[in-house]
C-alpha cells in the first residue's frame, strides 16, 4: 500500500493511542509486579523476580488488534481473530483487557489499577495464564502453544458461517510447519455462498526463536508468487524500525479496507448468482514489522529491535542492573502511559474510541465460545437403519457402510442448518461412507472436469489428503459450535497425534473456565484397520492411536470398539451427542458378522461391556472356568470362533464370553468416569479365573488398563505385536497369535489340568495352524474353513 | 517443452520399448498368476483370484524410470530416485526387474519367464511384496506407504553428497500432505557446493483415491506461480490420453536435459566460486499424465483412463466375465509383449538399450543401500568432556550443554568427511547445544542480514520450524549411509510420531532383507521436557513419545533417561554407535545435580540400571525394606531427596535406591533384547518389597513394562498425569504427586507398620506440602528449601 490519508487525524490519534496502550500492557506483563502505571520511578522490587515471556511478536499482534477494532466498529463486522504466532500472550491478553471483556469475565482483573496490576502479575506465573492464546483468553478458540494449526482452525470456523470474517494471524515461524503449509490450499474448499471468509495476515517479523524465518527471507517477488500461487491477492503493509508509525497506521487501515471490500464483493457476486462460478482470489495481508518493534533498539551496544534477540525478554537483568532498570523505564514511558490511562488505571476515552461494543468485541464474539451457539444435533431413529439379526453370526454386513446410512440421514436433516460436516483424507468412499453423497457433495472450489462425481461448491464432506487440515478444519468447526466426524484409516491417525493431544488439553482446560460453554465432541472413526490391510501391508498397520489417546485427560477421552454393524450405530448415536469429549471409534469396513440386534446392541453399548451368554457355555448356577474376552470386530470373530470350537469339542467346560465396547470400562472407577468399580469388574471377569483376552491393538494396553484388578495376574492378552506384512486376513491373526486356534490353545493351557485332558483338541488346533500355513503357501489365500466360517449359534 | 527432435529414431524406439515393457510388467503384476507372456489366449485360471494393486500412477512412474535410464547412461550420472506416489509398486518393481537388479538380489525372480511369473505372483500376495516402494525394492530408500515424506527424504539424501542427483517423484495426492507441503522450502537449505541436487518431478495425474488432486486442478498460471514461489524453475511435460506418446518422449527427454544442464551449471558456478552467492532456482519437472494412461479407456461404457476409476484395478471381474477377459487381453497385447521379450521371457536387447550398467542402475546405486557406504563415526574421548564429580549432588550442570561440547567435537572431527548432521526445529540453542556453532554454522541459503549469527551456506546444523522436515531430512541422510541427531522439545516429538513409526517399520523390514546393510541409528534427543515448562505451560507438556516408540519393534527401539550430565554423555556415545535402531534419549537442559563421575556413569549406563548404594541405607547383609526407583532427571532428584529425608529421619529403615537409564531393561528378556531375566530383575527390585517408582512420564508405562515381574503387585508409580499448567518446577512435581514429600509418604504408607511408627514424619511431609502451596500462592516461586536443596551425600 502506498501512503494514503485513509484516517482522519482524530482516528489516527485514537488508533495510535490504543496501540501504544497495548504495547505498554504487553511489556508490563513481562516485567512488572508492582507500580503498574509508573506512578513512581521504577525500583528493583517492582520487577518480577523471573522475567518470562515473548516480546518479539507482540507489537505486530497489537497493531492487528487495534486495527481490527477500527474495521469492526466501522462496518459492524462479525469477526473473530485467530492468533497464530506462538507466545503472543502478552499482546492478546492486553487486547482483551483493554476492550473490557477480560474484566467482565474475570472481575478481579478489571479495567482499573488493581486489575492492571493483576493482569501483569498473572502472566506466566503459577496459577496464572500461559504465554500464548489459550482457553482462558476471551475471544480465542485457538491455542498458540504448538504451532501450525491457526489457518486450519480459521477455515474450520468460517465453514457454514456466511456472515463471519475470520482473521488469522499466521506467524512466519509457524508458517514453516507442515500443518500450516498444507492449510494454504484450504481456499480451494471455501464456499463464498454458504461459508464466511478467512483473511490471513502473514506476520513477517523476521525471526523465529533463534533463526530467521524462511518466508521473511525470500526476495519480494518470490514471496508474491508464492502467495498468488496459493490463490491469494497479497496486500503489503511494511513497518520499519525507528520510523514514525503514522504511515503504518494509514497503510494498515487502507489494506484492511481493501481486503474487506474485496471479500464483500466476492461474497455478493457469488451469493447473487448469475455468471460462471470462478474461485475468488481472496485477499491476504502481508504485515512486515520489526521483531520487538518499539522495544529497546540496542542493549549494551548490541542491536535488539529487529533481531532474534527481541524474541523473548529483550532487556534482561533489570532487577540487578540499575542502568538496565533505567532503560526499561525509558522504554515503558516511551508509550506515554499517563496519556493513555488515568491515575486510577482506567483507559482514557480516546484510547477506547476504536473499540467496538458488546458482542462485536473480539473477546466477546460468541463464535469464539462456540458452545454458546451449539444446537442439539438431530439424530435419526436407529430402527430404520439397523440390520436385522435373527441369529448371531449368520449374516454379514460392512459396519461402516451401515453407518454411512445413518450419516446420510444426519446430513439430510442438517441440510438447512448446515452444522454438521464429515472430514477425511480422501477416504470417505474407501471407508464405505459414500451413502452421504446421495444428499451432499464433497466441497470443491478448484477446477472440475466432466468425469468428476459428487464434487460441488456447497458440499459438506471435506476431503483433502492432509490429516492435519482435516483435523484442523474439524477442530475449528467444533470450537465455533458445530458438529462433525473425522473418518480415517486407523494407521494414519497418528499423523495428528499431537494435534489430538492439544485438542484434549484445550477441552480439559476449557472445562475449568467457567464462562466457556461445552462444545460438541471431536469424533474419530478409525477404519480400514490393522487387521485388514491385505495388500497395503505393514505400512498401513498401526493400532497405536488408542494408546496415545488413553494417556490423556480421562474426563475427556473415550475409546469404543463396536464389534458389528448395529453396535457401531449405537456408538455413533452416543458419541454424536457427547460434549467436551474426544471419542475414538474403531470399526471395520469389511464384511463382518452381525452379532447383536438393535435392542441388544443398545443395551450392550449402554453398559459398555457385557457377558454374551448365548456365546458361552456357562451354567447359570456356577462361576465360569475360563473367561474369553474380546474387543474389536476381528478379535470378536476369532474369540467367538474359539468359543464355538470349545462348545462343540469340550461342552462340559464352562466358558464365559465377554465383549468390551467401551475400553475405559476396564479402568478403575477412580481413574476414569466410565471405569467399573472393582465389584462390577469382578462380577464380569471373576477374581481368579483365567481370562484370555483377544484385543484389537497392542496387547499391553489391556494390562495397563487392568493392572489394579484382582484377576490381573491371570489375564492373558493376544493382540497386534507388529507382526505385520502384506497378507490375508486370517494369516494376519495367525502371525500375531490372535487366531481362534491359538485362543483355544490358550484356554487349554490356562485352565488347570485341561491341557492334558484335552490333548487331542490341542493337537488338532496345532494341526489347523499347520494346515493354514501350508494352504496359504500353496494357494495364496485363506483356507475355505476360515474364509467361510460361520458361528454355529 | 515444445516438441523437439531431442531423440534419434533409434533412441525413441528403444525408450518406447522400455516403457511399454514396464507398463506390461506393471499390469501383469496386478492381473496374472500364470501365462505371463500371453503365450496362449488368456483363460480365467491365468488371472489372480483377488485383483489388488494400483494401476493409476504406474504408467507415469514408468515413463520417469525409462527416461532416467537414458540420462544416467548418457551422462554417467550418479543418480537415485525417490518414488513418492503411493502404491506405485507395480511400476518400480517392474523397473528393478527389467534392469536386472531385482534378479541379481532375488535369483528366483530372475530376468526370464519363470522369474517374470514369480514377479507377477509375488505382488500383493502373502509373503510377497507390498503395493508400494519398500525396503524389498532395490534402489529404494523410501517407503511409499504413508504419503508425504518423499521430498524431505530426497533432500536428506542429497546433503553432503555433492556428486549425487536425487530425483524425487512427488505424487499430486501426497503433495496435499503437511509434510510434503513444508518440504518445498528445503531448497533454502541445500548447498550447491557441498550438497548434491534434488530434481523434483511433480506427477500430476489428476486424482488421488477418489478425488481430484488440488495441484492438478489449479489454473496453469497459478500452479506456475506457486512453484516459482517455492523457488523453482518449472519445466512442463504433458501427455494426453489416446495421443501417440512420441511427442511425450521427446518432451520428457528435452526437459530432463534442460534440468540436468541447469543443475550442472548451478553447481559449477557455486563450486568455482567468484561472484556473489545467489540461491539457484533449481529446475523442477511438472509431469502431467492421464491417470491409468494406456490402460482401458472405457469399461462398460464408462470412462476409466484419465479418471479416478483408474486408481486401483481399472478392469474388474475379469475372471468371471469373458468380455472383460478379452478386454484385458487386448490391453496387455497393446504393449506388443512379443516385440519386447523373447519366448524365454528375456527382454530383447533394444528394450535394454537405455539401461545403465552396474552400480549406475537405479536399483544398484549404493546410496540407496546406505549401510554399504557407512563409516564409523569418530567419537571423542569422553574424559575431556565429562564434568568432575567429587561427591554426588553437590554441583549443578546443564546436561544438554555438556552434550553440546561433545557434539561440537563430533562436528569438528567430521568437518572434512561431512557425514554428521544435527537437525532440530529452531531449538538447537534453546536446547543448549550451541557449542556446535563454534565449528559449524546453521545451513542457510535464503537471504541474510547483518545481524544474523551462525548462518552459513555450508553449515551442518539444520534448523527449520517443521518437525516433519527435520525428521525427513535425517531419515534420508541416515538411509544413505550417514549419521545424525534430532533434538526437539519433548512435547513436540509427537508431531512426527507417525513418521517415527514408519521409520521403525522400515528398519525392522530391512533387517529381514539380506542385501541391505545396517544403517546408523535414528537418534532423538528430547529435551525442554515436561517438568520444565515453567512459562510455556500445559501445551508444552507431553512425555508420550516414549510410550509411542515402545509399542514398536523391540529389536529396533530403545529409550534412555540419563539422570545427569555424565550419564547423558555416555548414552550419547552409545547411541551414536548403534545401527538399525531408533533411540530416544530424554534429558534436561536446566541445571541438574551431577550424581555420577564419568567412570561410574559408564558402568551405570553399560548396565542400563543399577543400585545406587551411596544413596540408600541398605545394610550389606540384608534385603532392603523398600525400593525407591527412579528414571529421569527430575524424578531422580526427587527420589534422592526423599532418600535423604528417610536417611536423616528414619536411619534404621533399609532403603534401596535404584536408577534406571535404559527403560527396556524393565521388560522381560523374551520381549526385548535389552530386557532383564526375572532373576536379574528380582536381584535389583526384590520379589516382594514395596517399590516406589518415580518416573519421568505417564506412570502406567512402568506397569506396562513390569506386569510380568514377581514384585509387580507391589510397584507403586508416580509420574506425569496431565496435571499440567504454567507453574514452577517444584509445583509441577507436587501437582503430579512426584515430589520428595509425597514419595516419603508413599514409603511410609507401603512399608508395613511404618505409617503408624513414623506418624510424625508423615505429618511433617504433609506440612511441607502445605507450606509449598502457601508459599507459591504468596511469592509466585518455589520455597527456598526446594530451590536450593542439595543431597547431603
From TrEMBL, chains A, B:
Transmembrane segments: none annotated. Gene3D superfamilies: 3.40.50.920, 3.40.50.970. The keyword Lyase applies. Its EC number is 4.1.2.-. Its cofactor is thiamine diphosphate. Keywords: Lyase, Thiamine pyrophosphate. InterPro entries: Phosphoketolase, THDP-binding, Transketo_C/PFOR_II, Xul5P/Fru6P_PKetolase, Xul5P/Fru6P_PKetolase_C, Xul5P/Fru6P_PKetolase_CS, Xul5P/Fru6P_PKetolase_N, Xul5P/Fru6P_PKetolase_ThDP_BS. Residues 7-372 form the Xylulose 5-phosphate/Fructose 6-phosphate phosphoketolase N-terminal domain. Residues 589-791 form the Xylulose 5-phosphate/Fructose 6-phosphate phosphoketolase C-terminal domain. Belongs to the XFP family. This is Probable phosphoketolase. It comes from Streptomyces lonegramiae.
Amino acid at each position: 500500500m502506498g501512503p494514503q490519508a485513509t484516517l482522519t487525524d482524530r482516528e489516527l490519534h485514537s488508533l495510535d493511542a490504543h496501540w501504544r496502550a497495548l504495547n505498554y500492557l504487553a511489556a508490563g506483563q513481562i516485567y512488572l509486579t508492582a507500580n503498574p502505571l509508573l506512578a513512581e520511578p521504577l525500583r528493583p522490587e517492582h520487577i518480577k523476580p523471573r522475567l518470562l515471556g515473548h516480546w518479539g511478536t507482540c507489537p505486530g499482534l497489537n497493531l492487528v488488534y487495534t486495527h481490527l477494532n477500527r474495521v469492526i466498529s466501522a462496518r459492524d463486522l462479525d469477526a473473530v481473530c485467530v492468533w497464530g504466532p506462538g507466545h503472543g500472550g502478552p499482546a492478546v491478553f492486553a487486547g482483551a483487557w483493554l476492550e473490557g471483556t477480560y474484566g467482565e469475565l474475570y472481575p478481579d482483573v478489571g479495567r482499573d489499577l488493581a486489575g492492571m496490576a493483576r493482569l501483569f502479575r498473572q502472566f506466566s506465573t503459577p496459577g496464572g495464564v500461559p504465554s500464548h492464546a489459550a482457553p482462558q483468553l476471551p475471544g480465542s478458540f485457538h491455542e498458540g502453544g504448538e504451532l501450525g494449526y491457526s489457518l486450519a482452525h480459521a477455515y474450520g470456523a468460517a465453514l457454514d458461517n456466511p456472515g463471519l470474517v475470520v482473521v488469522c494471524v499466521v506467524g512466519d515461524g509457524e508458517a514453516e510447519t507442515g500443518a500450516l503449509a498444507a492449510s494454504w490450499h484450504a481456499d480451494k474448499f471455501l464456499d463464498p455462498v454458504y461459508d464466511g471468509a478467512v483473511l490471513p495476515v502473514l506476520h513477517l517479523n523476521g525471526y523465529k526463536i533463534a533463526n530467521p524465518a524462511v518466508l521473511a527471507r525470500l526476495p519480494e517477488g518470490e514471496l508474491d508468487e508464492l502467495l498468488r500461487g496459493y490463490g491469494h491477492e497479497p496486500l503489503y503493509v511494511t513497518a520499519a524500525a525507528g520510523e514514525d508509525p503514522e504511515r503504518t497506521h494509514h497503510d494498515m487501515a487502507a489494506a484492511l479496507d481493501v481486503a474487506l471490500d474485496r471479500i464483500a464483493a466476492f461474497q455478493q457476486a457469488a451469493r447473487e448468482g448469475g455468471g460462471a462460478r470462478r474461485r475468488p482470489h481472496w485477499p491476504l495481508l502481508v504485515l512486515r514489522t520489526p521483531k520487538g518493534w518499539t522495544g529497546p533498539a540496542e542493549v549494551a551496544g548490541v542491536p535488539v529491535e529487529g533481531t532474534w534477540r527481541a524474541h523473548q525478554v529483550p532487556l534482561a537483568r533489570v532487577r540487578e542492573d540499575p542502568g538496565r532498570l533505567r532503560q526499561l523505564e525509558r522504554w515503558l514511558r516511551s508509550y506515554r502511559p499517563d496519556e493513555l490511562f488515568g491515575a486510577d488505571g482506567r483507559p482514557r476515552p480516546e484510547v477506547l474510541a476504536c473499540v467496538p461494543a458488546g458482542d462485536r468485541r473480539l473477546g466477546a464474539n460468541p463464535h469464539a465460545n462456540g458452545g454458546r451457539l451449539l444446537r442439539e444435533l438431530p439424530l435419526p431413529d436407529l430402527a430404520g437403519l439397523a440390520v436385522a439379526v435373527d441369529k448371531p453370526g449368520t449374516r454379514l454386513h460392512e459396519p461402516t457402510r451401515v453407518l454411512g446410512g445413518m450419516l446420510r440421514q444426519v446430513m439430510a436433516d442438517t441440510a438447512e442448518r448446515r452444522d454438521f460436516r464429515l472430514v477425511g483424507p480422501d477416504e470417505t468412499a474407501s471407508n464405505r461412507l459414500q451413502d452421504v453423497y446421495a444428499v451432499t457433495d464433497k466441497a470443491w472450489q478448484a477446477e472440475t472436469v466432466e468425469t468428476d462425481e459428487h464434487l460441488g461448491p456447497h458440499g459438506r464432506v471435506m476431503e483433502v489428503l492432509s490429516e492435519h487440515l482435516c483435523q484442523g478444519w474439524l477442530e475449528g468447526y467444533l470450537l465455533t459450535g458445530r458438529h462433525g466426524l473425522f473418518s480415517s484409516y486407523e494407521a494414519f491417525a497418528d499423523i495428528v497425534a499431537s494435534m489430538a493431544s492439544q485438542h484434549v488439553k484445550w477441552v480439559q482446560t476449557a472445562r475449568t473456565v467457567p464462562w466457556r460453554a461445552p462444545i460438541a465432541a471431536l469424533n474419530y472413526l478409525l477404519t480400514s484397520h490393522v487387521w485388514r490391510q491385505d495388500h497395503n501391508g505393514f505400512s498401513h498397520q498401526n493400532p497405536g492411536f488408542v494408546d496415545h489417546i488413553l494417556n490423556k485427560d480421562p474426563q475427556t477421552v473415550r475409546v469404543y470398539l463396536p464389534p458389528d454393524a448395529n453396535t457401531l450405530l449405537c456408538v455413533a448415536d452416543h458419541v454424536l451427542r457427547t460434549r467436551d469429549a474426544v471419542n475414538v471409534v474403531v470399526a471395520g469396513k469389511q464384511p463382518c458378522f452381525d452379532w447383536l440386534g438393535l435392542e441388544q446392541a443398545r443395551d450392550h453399548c449402554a453398559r459398555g461391556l457385557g457377558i454374551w451368554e448365548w456365546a458361552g457355555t456357562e451354567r447359570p448356577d456356577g462361576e465360569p472356568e475360563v473367561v474369553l474376552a474380546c474387543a474389536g470386530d476381528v478379535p470378536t470373530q476369532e474369540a467367538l470362533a474359539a468359543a464355538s470350537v470349545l462348545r462343540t469339542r469340550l461342552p462340559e467346560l464352562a466358558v464365559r464370553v465377554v465383549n468390551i465396547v467401551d475400553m475405559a470400562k476396564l479402568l478403575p472407577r477412580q481413574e476414569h468416569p466410565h471405569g467399573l468399580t472393582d465389584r462390577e469388574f469382578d462380577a464380569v471377569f471373576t477374581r481368579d479365573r483365567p481370562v484370555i483376552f483377544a484385543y484389537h491393538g497392542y496387547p499391553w494396553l489391556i494390562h495397563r488398563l487392568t493392572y489394579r484388578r484382582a484377576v490381573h495376574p491371570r489375564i492373558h492378552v493376544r493382540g497386534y505385536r507388529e507382526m505385520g506384512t502384506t497378507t490375508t486376513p486370517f494369516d494376519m491373526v495367525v502371525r500375531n497369535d490372535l487366531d481362534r486356534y491359538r485362543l483355544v490353545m490358550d484356554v487349554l493351557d490356562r485352565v488347570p489340568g485341561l491341557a492334558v485332558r484335552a490333548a487331542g483338541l490341542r493337537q488338532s488346533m496345532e494341526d489347523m495352524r499347520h494346515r493354514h500355513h501350508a494352504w496359504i503357501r500353496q494357494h495364496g489365500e485363506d483356507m475355505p474353513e476360515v474364509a467361510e466360517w460361520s458361528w454355529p449359534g
